[in-house]
Design goal:
The protein has 116 residues and is mainly alpha-helical. The chain is 70% helix and 0% strand. It is elongated. The chain starts with a helix and ends in a 21-residue tail after the last helix.
């Protein structure tokens, strides 16, 4: 293995290892509120466009790294869409928890403490 191939392999492993914690946290928590839908969409479009370049290269570490990025970004976009959909459903269900007459959410109050 020449120096360029070794450097490409090591950097591929490092880049993938750097992204795995973020991906695993997103999968486990299903909380993607800190992500931007437009950034995820643009990242996926960029990855798809970059695929044209990667396919023109001989097989090597860049293929593995780019494949990892394709899968990771697509998964993040899908998780974001699922998360956004479930939040919209939750918001609609929360609207049903309002009192039917006034539309104001019910409020719990603590019993007042009176000095005896």
């Amino acid at each position: 293995m020449d120096a360029a191939m070794l450097a490409g392999t090591v950097s591929t492993v490092l880049f993938a290892a750097a992204n795995l914690p973020m991906l695993l946290k997103a999968v486990r928590s299903r909380d993607l509120r800190s992500y931007s839908a437009s950034a995820l969409v643009l990242g996926n479009v960029g990855n798809l466009t970059y695929t044209i370049y990667v396919v023109s290269l001989p097989f090597g570490p860049i293929w593995v790294l780019h494949g990892f990025y394709l899968v990771t970004m697509a998964l993040m976009l899908v998780l974001y869409a699922v998360s956004a959909r479930s939040q919209r459903r939750g918001a609609r269900a929360g609207a049903a928890a309002t009192t039917p007459v006034s539309g104001i959410p019910s409020v719990r109050t603590r019993p007042s403490r009176r000095a005896a």
